[in-house]
Amino acid sequence: MNWDDLRLLLDVSRHPRLADVSKRTGQDPTTISRRLRRLETDLGLELFERTPKGHVLTPVGQSVADKVESLEHTASEIAALSDRDGPLAAGRVRLGVTEGLGSLLIAPAMSDFAARHPHIGLDIIAVSGFVSVPKREADMSIMLTRPKAGRVKVRKLSDYVLQVYAHPDYLSRTRPVEQVSDLAEHDLIGYVDDLIYSSQLRYHEDIAPGLTPRFCSPSIVAQWQMAREGAGLAVLPHFIAAGDPNLVHVLPDQVRIERAFWLAVHEDVHGTTRVRAVSDFLDELFAASAQRLTGNI
Predict the structure, then answer these.
(1) Are residues 252 and 238 in the same domain?
(2) pLDDT classification of 77: cutoffs 50, 70, 90
(3) Most buried in the list 11, 62, 78, 129, measured by CB within 10 Å?
């Protein structure tokens, strides 16, 4: 029985489609499938059901996966013993973060981070969605809502503000926007409804009942680009749009949506020097960016 095959079983239990596991591991789906069958042969057990939705664990497969996950936790705890109080912050940290925040606030700060922590590698998983800390898809993750379950340590990082923005050319060729009710007569930009991964992203419902975007994308960066090219009105984070010379505030005194960022860190790595270093860096970055995040002086 191969430990690497057991770890692969755990990966597939979290991501049933082999194509997804392939992207994460760099192995082709055929190799992954062959290794899973080898593991089943070694154990003499049927671990998965092959379904249109991917490899789904059988009851005995789930039992094996639970035990492997316990081993993974133990291995992480052992590794953390040498790192917890060591003088040198070193190793690799995987940080999950929302797309806009990761791309426009955190990524530009990596030069400073690299200078301060030359021995830490940082994976910034900036996507339109969340990566799971409890499932060990990331060591730590910045989220839009406070997680209520899982082996994680959670704290609030920062508040942030969203407002309505548009390109001046769009505003010049359309009806005036003088009050919230006028928004219903305009082209709105927002998220694809059935791809919204957090209720905190349903901004238009907070502004007025019945507002429906005409142009939609699961990517906040794509929404930002639509707005700055004059496609319509978009609800955008202050830290993305306020400094953009191609955009102006619309109804700045009438529409102000407040949200928060939460930092979740897996318990197994919470006390390690490398994770503490990233956590401290995020605290300093968010404190220095407070006005950019909220617009408050």
Answers:
(1) yes
(2) low
(3) 11
